Amino acid sequence: QAVVDFEQRGEHAAAFQGHDVGFCCLGTTRAKAGADGFVRVDRDYVAQAAELARAGGCKHFVLQSSRGANAQSRFLYLRVKGEVENLVQAVGFDHCTILRPAVLLCKRQESRPMEWIAQQFFGAVACVFPTANSVPVETVARAMVACVLQPGEKKVKVLENGAIHELGKA
Question: pLDDT tens per residue, the chain (170 residues)?
Fold first, then answer.
């Protein structure tokens, strides 16, 4: 495991060398980093990680994005997620898999009251409709690994929440 300071990414290029597969779940929140910081982390750092990984020999890049990602969205979060999806695809990996999970069900160390309320609500809904509006982070992680073990023919594959649930069962 290597800790990378993306403000000094040139000093960390060696950490991205010699890997066939890259997994990226990098992200922050607007509340934590501000609008500019959110864009810097969720778009710029992720795109830079993809470029460094490709330069280091990575063949398959797996990106965790978000349901509703759209570079044309009026909402900053969804627009940034859509923009980074486009940037990562443009890097030119042999395979690129983009996962678009809905609300992530997980335990966090930091306090995010609104997210906690959403998780409680969607956790209850998941009892009746398990793939509708949420997904446990463990399922996303299993799906990320499974998509590398079964890359398929397509150069770019986008997995929405239902497909993440299916693949995460494997």
Answer: 888 898 888 788 999 999 999 999 999 989 899 999 999 999 999 999 999 999 999 999 999 999 999 999 999 999 999 999 999 999 999 999 999 999 888 776 665 566 667 666 656 655 555 556 789 999 999 999 999 998 788 999 999 999 999 999 86
- Give, for 136, the enclosing helix (H) or strand (E): strand 134-136
Identify whether 31 is part of a domain. yes
Answer whether residue 1 is part of any domain. Answer: no
pTM: 0.86
Which position among 32, 45, 59, 81 bears the catalytic label? 81
Question: What's the CATH number where 72 sits?
Answer: 3.40.50.720
Q: What's the length of the chain?
A: 170
The rounded distance, in Å, linking the Cα atoms of 141 and 145 is 6
Active-site hit among 32, 45, 59, 77: 77
Catalytic: 81? yes
Q: How many domains does the chain have?
A: 1
